Each structure stands twice: as structure tokens, then as C-alpha cells.
Amino acid sequence: TILSAQMLGRSHLLSGGMQAQYGNALGGIMDLRLRQGNSERRAYTAQAGLVGIDLSTEGPLRTGGKASYLVNYRYSTLGLLSGLGVALGDEAITFQDLAFSVFAPLGDRSELKLFAMGGNSSNRFNRKDSTEWEVDKDDRNIDYTARVGVAGLSYMQRVGGSATWYTVLALSANEQDHALEY
Predict the structure, then answer these.
(1) CB 136 within 8 Å of CB 149
(2) Which end of the chain is more exposed for a tag (fewer CB within 10 A), N or C?
(3) What is the pLDDT of residues 47-85, one digit of tens each?
(4) What does the alpha-carbon distance between residue 56 and residue 150 come to, in Å, rounded to a whole number?
(5) Phi/psi at 77 (5° precision)
(6) Contact by Cβ (8 Å): 148, 118
(7) Residue 120 φ/ψ region, left for φ over 0, alpha for ψ in the -120 to 50 degree band, beta for the rest
């Protein structure tokens, strides 16, 4: 997924009959929300793990204001190690992604959020000598790449004492290439 845990806010797993906001769907829905950045002070996070190197920053857009930003970048650990010449098995796997969120309260009863995330990944496998074939894919070169991105804007307005108007506009793109060579 191109969504780092550093970006996640309140999330719910819903099952059964869904409300109208989820298209009256039957089944299950994972409702993931992006968290807003820290509006009081700047903060920086760096972490390294088996999956990747993760860097993030968050803070107020201006000192004393309530608007905030959150930015996160990740690069795959396997990509870094293979780039340094470390042999990691039969496949070369790499990914990177970037995500950001900007939160701006518009008075006491409304808010605006701008968000975007994008990433790319690749998986390359070189065919083995026929004397080493153990599984089906060993007889071919496989080159898989994927690119995905989304950008959007959400607006929330409280109406009356108990109602809320919520509108989201998003644009997304996804491209995948899968090439086999025997």
C-alpha cells in the first residue's frame, strides 16, 4: 500500500449492510482516514524497518495558526540494499511513495483538507538456467512495474446542531505494466 502508518488517523473496518455514505454496499469496507498534522509545533520522524525507510514531517502552516500539514516519504529497504549490490534472492523488488495532507479549519463549523499520494514499484525476475528450474516462473524474465496516484480536496460543514455536509473531490490514476520474456 502507498499509505504509510505515519499518515493514518481514525480507521474502521465495517461489515454487513453499509450506510448511504458507503453506497449502501453489502460486504466489508475499510474506512481509512488521514490524520491532520500537529498544529502547535513542528515534528520530524525517521524510521527504518524491514519494509522501508520512512521519513515524515508535520507542523503548523504558520506560527499561531490552526492549519497544519503532514508529509511522508518511503523508500524500500530491499531497493536500497540491492542498489548497494547486496544479493537478496532471485528478484529485484523496489518501491517508493510520497503522501501529504493539509488541514485548514474555516471557522468553528467547517474545514478544508487537501491530500495527495503517489508511488511506484517494480519487481524484476531474471530467468534461470534450465538446469536450475524449480517453479513455473524460472523459465522466463518477468518485469512488473506499477504507478499509482490520487489527489483530492474535502470540505466539511456542520449544519444545524446535529447534521454535517461532507464533500470530497478526488482524481486518481493507476498504470501497470507486466512483461514476460521466454
Answers:
(1) no
(2) C
(3) 998 888 999 999 999 988 899 999 999 999 888 888 788
(4) 19
(5) -65, -40
(6) yes
(7) beta
122-172 per-position pLDDT tens digit: 988 888 888 888 887 888 888 999 999 999 999 999 998 899 999 999 999
> What is the reported pTM?
0.81
Report how far residue 169's alpha carbon sits from residue 28's, in angstroms, rounded to the nearest whole number.
Answer: 23
Residue 180 C-alpha cell reads as 514476460
Any idea of the CA torsion for 125, 129, 133, 136, to the nearest 10 degrees?
40
Average pLDDT over residues 95-124: 95
Complete DSSP assignment for the chain: ----GGGEEEEEEEEEEPPGGGTT-EEEEEEEEEPPPPSSS-EEEEEE-SSEEEEEEEEESSTT-S-EEEEEEEEEHHHHHHHTT---SSEEEEEEEEEEEEEEE-SSSEEEEEEEEEEEEEEEEPPPPGGG--SGGGGSEEEEEEEEEEEEEEEEEEETTTEEEEEEEEEEEEEEEEEEE-
CB atoms within 10 A of CB 133: 12
Amino acid at 98: L
How many other C-beta atoms are found inside a 10 Å radius of the C-beta of residue 69?
20
* Distance (Å, whole) CA 40 – CA 29: 33
The one-letter amino acid code at 159 reads V
